Amino acid sequence: MTRVRTRKKVAKKQYTTYAAIGLVIFIFLTETEEGQHILTWLFNILLIGILGYGYYRFFLRKKRFTHIVDLKEVDTMDGLEFERYLVPLFECIGYNAEVTKGSGDYGADLIIKKKRKKYVVQAKRYSSSIGVSAIQQVVGAIGYYKANGGMVVTNQYFTPAAEELAKHNRIRLIDRDELSFMIKKYQGGLNKWR
């Protein structure tokens, strides 16, 4: 507890120091004509960066598969398509999501982050119920990726044994019904997830 407080105090002192140095540099630059030109260039670069990030965030980051209306189309996807499809769904509910490498992913198909918390996600696009192996993979991935928790997302339902194992390991299960809800949310529907 005291270490955390000490770190926060040190960080606060550092921020104060950086702010003071920045203010001195700013005042120094505003006194000369050259400094004013430098500040103008820095401001323009910052403005272009902010506009570029906004363009990226709101236009280029929109993923494919926005046309999908129901789970029948999800049922026709292959595993990798399903993983990629989940990225914008998780981003819609406030996570930063990325697909892991295909083979050798140690049980995590996606890594999602939100408010300094990291979660591993196992994506299972199957034609039958999901058993305990998916839960076991996520439990292993939590340790490997040093995650705070895990989820299994599927276009089907879970067996009772899988639900029991997930409950004991605190793994979040997202089945066909909840996935359908996420898709509706992504398309501008309900607001349960926020």
TrEMBL record:
GO MF assignments: endonuclease activity
Keyword check for Nucleotide-binding: no
Segments crossing the lipid bilayer: 15-32, 38-56
Domain spans labelled Restriction endonuclease type IV Mrr: 75-181
Protein name in UniProt: Restriction endonuclease
Domain of life: Bacteria
Signal peptide: none
Keywords: Endonuclease, Hydrolase, Membrane, Nuclease, Transmembrane, Transmembrane helix
